[in-house]
Design goal:
The chain is α/β, with parallel strands linked by helices. It has 10 helices and 14 strands. It has a 7-stranded parallel beta sheet with strand order 1-14-13-12-2-3-4, sandwiched between helices. Strands 6-5-7-8-11 form a 5-stranded parallel beta sheet, covered by helices on one side. The chain starts with 10 loop residues before the first strand and ends in a 5-residue tail after the last strand. The mean pLDDT is 94.
Length: 293
C-alpha cells in the first residue's frame, strides 16, 4: 500500500451521490457514520442502499473490538438491512486473526496467558486462539485491551493495572485504536486511550484497526480486483478514517458531524477543517456533514 498524495484542500460536498461514479467500492465506518451507537442514521441507510443499487461494493470497516459476526448481529438488532452492505471488517477481527496466526515477531512472542482489559461483550476476540485468561498482572504474559465497561470510566481508574503491567514489561495488544467515541450524546474513552497511556508509561503496544495496515489488507482481500484508487473510505475521524484510508491508497471522505462535531460545529468553517487536517498531517479528498446521497 502507498500513501496517496496530500491534496491542498478537500472538496466540500453534501453527499456521495455527485461523486459516486468515480468509485467502485466504499469502505464505510460504523460508529459516528452509520449510527451513533444506539440508532442508525436514516440518511446513511438510504445512501448505501442507493450505492448498492448503483452497483457499488459496500464494506463496513469498523474499529469495534469485536469479531465481524458479532458486529453483524448488532447491526441486525439496530435494524440495519443486510442488503445495503457486502461484508464487515473490524479491528476485533484483525486482532483475533493476529492472535491466531502469530506470524510476526511481536505476536509470536506473546505467550498464552492473557489478561483481558475490557468488558465481557468483547470476549469473542480472545476465544478460539488457545489463550489462558488470567485475572492478575503477576500471572499474565500479555495484556489484551479491548476498552472499558461503563461509558464513564476514566484512564485514572485503570492506572494501577497499567503501571503494574508496564513494570513487568508486558506487551499490550490494542483491539481498538480509537481514543473516544460518542454513545448517543455522551463521550466515552476507548481502548486506544488506554493503550496511549500505556505507551507513555513505557509499555510496548501492537495496534489493530484503523489507521493501521492489517485491516486494510483484509478489506482489499474482500474486494478482489478493485484497486485502492477506485475505493472511497468514508468516516468521521481525521486520525483514523482519513489517515488510514490515505495510507492505504484510497480516496477519503470526512464526515464532520461525528467525532469532530464539537470541534467543527453543525455548519463547519472550511478553513477550520483544513487547518485541523493539516495539524494531523493528513487531508481528506472530500468533506460532508454526514453520510448521505
Amino acid at each position: 500500500m502507498t500513501t496517496s498524495a496530500l491534496i491542498a484542500e478537500p472538496a466540500f460536498v453534501d453527499g456521495i451521490g455527485p461523486i459516486a461514479e468515480r468509485f467502485d467500492a466504499l469502505l464505510v465506518d460504523l460508529w459516528g457514520t452509520l449510527h451513533d451507537g444506539v440508532t442508525p442514521h436514516p440518511a446513511a441507510i438510504d445512501a448505501l442502499a442507493r450505492a448498492k443499487a448503483a452497483g457499488k461494493h459496500v464494506l463496513f470497516l469498523s474499529n469495534g473490538p469485536r469479531r465481524a459476526a458479532t458486529l453483524r448481529r448488532r447491526l441486525d438488532e439496530m435494524g440495519v438491512p443486510r442488503e445495503i452492505y457486502d461484508g464487515i471488517v473490524s479491528s476485533g477481527e484483525a486482532t483475533w486473526a493476529a492472535l491466531a496466526a502469530r506470524s510476526d515477531p511481536f505476536h509470536a512472542a506473546l505467550g498464552r496467558r492473557c489478561l483481558h482489559l475490557g468488558p465481557e461483550r468483547d470476549n469473542d476476540v480472545r476465544e478460539g486462539v488457545g489463550l489462558e485468561i488470567v485475572a492478575r498482572v503477576e500471572d499474565a504474559d500479555f495484556v489484551l485491551c479491548t476498552g472499558i465497561d461503563a461509558w464513564d470510566e476514566t484512564v485514572a481508574q485503570h492506572e494501577p493495572l497499567l503501571k503494574a503491567a508496564a513494570a513487568r514489561d508486558l506487551p499490550l495488544v490494542c483491539a481498538n485504536p480509537d481514543l473516544v467515541v460518542h454513545v448517543g450524546t455522551r463521550a466515552s474513552i476507548c481502548a486506544g486511550t488506554l493503550a496511549q497511556r500505556y505507551e507513555e508509561l513505557g509499555g510496548r503496544v501492537a495496534y489493530h484497526g484503523k489507521p493501521y495496515p492489517s485491516v486494510y489488507d483484509m478489506c482489499f482481500a474482500a474486494l478482489p480486483g478493485i484497486p485502492a484508487g477506485r475505493t472511497l473510505a468514508i468516516g468521521d475521524s481525521l486520525r483514523t478514517d482519513v489517515t488510514g484510508g490515505r495510507n492505504a491508497g484510497c480516496a477519503t471522505m470526512l464526515l464532520t458531524r461525528g467525532i469532530h462535531r464539537d470541534e467543527f460545529g453543525e455548519i463547519p468553517d472550511p478553513a477550520h477543517v483544513v487547518a485541523a487536517a493539516r495539524a494531523l498531517h493528513t487531508m481528506p479528498d472530500f468533506v460532508a456533514p454526514a453520510l448521505a446521497w
